[in-house]
Give the backbone structure.
Amino acid sequence: MKMGRAARRGVAGIVATVIMFAILFTVGTSYFVFVNGENAQYVQNLVGASNRLQSASGENLMVTTTLQSNGDVGFYVNNTSGETINMTAVYVQSSTGTLLKCDGVGLPASASCGNTTPTLWSVVNPAKGSSIFDTGYS
């Protein structure tokens, strides 16, 4: 040890501790912000799904089948609920459960669907009935 010079203490441990704390704080804060954002999105989706389910539970349709004068199967819908109903798809099944015909908005192009007359998207107002739909299936 040299005389006349003050001894310097090591500061490497303190600097390393400060750097590690800064890294942990940055990563921890980023993780907290990410998880909070994901949780907020989840809650928003859950509320939306709950609202759609509640709205759908208020729907009440009575479907009545008819035999058209041309021999085709037809149907009409009575809306007995207090909600406006948007009919967007129709599936006609045989008595064995085989899909005979379908029509509607949002069905895949690969589905072997026909067309109803009139075409769907159809709005049925509360306490009203729809027009008669001809499925085109005998």
